[in-house]
Amino acid sequence: MSNLDMLPLTKLDRLRMESSNNRELRDRFLNDPAGVLREAGFALSDSVNIQVIEDDETTHHITLPPFVGTDPAPQGPSSQPGSGPSTWECTTCTPTTPIAAGSLASLACV
């Protein structure tokens, strides 16, 4: 049992952490993120574009959810008529939000 097995991590958190130590996984995740996520058990629509970007010692990326306007009522892709479920709404449901915030954390909720 590894130390990771003792932490309350999502599948995505585990995949991200493993990619920091496994060069082959990291390279595949950067080149074929949807394929790696599917192999890990995530169900992805073919219409979803997944991009993995790499931080380094001096550059850290922050991603923002889609802009939905100034109305505080929830709006976005999933609230539009005829649209299917969306993954953009939830980025706080994982106990490891500081690790996954602003990333694909929402995929763990779908």
Task: Provide a quick synopsis of the model.
It is built from 4 helices and no strands. It is an all-alpha fold and 110 residues long. The chain is globular.
Describe this entry's structure for a reader.
With 110 residues, the chain is an all-alpha fold. The protein is globular. Helix 2 (23-31) crosses helix 3. Mean pLDDT is 73; it is low at 76-110. The chain has helices spanning 11-19, 23-31, 33-39, 97-100.
Rg over CA atoms = 15 Å
Tell me, rounded to a whole number, the average pLDDT. Answer: 73
Distance between termini? 27 Å
Largest sheet: none
How many strand elements?
A: 0
Give me the number of helical elements: 4
- Structural class, judged by helices and strands? mainly alpha
Estimate the strand proportion.
under 5%
Contiguous low-pLDDT stretches (5 residues minimum) are: 76-110
Order of helices and strands: HHHH
Q: What is the overall silhouette?
A: globular
Roughly what percent helix? 25-40%
Layout of strands and helices, then pairs:
Blueprint: H1 11-19, H2 23-31, H3 33-39, H4 97-100
Helix pairs in contact: 2-3
Features:
single chain; mainly alpha; 4 helices; about 25% helix; disordered C terminus
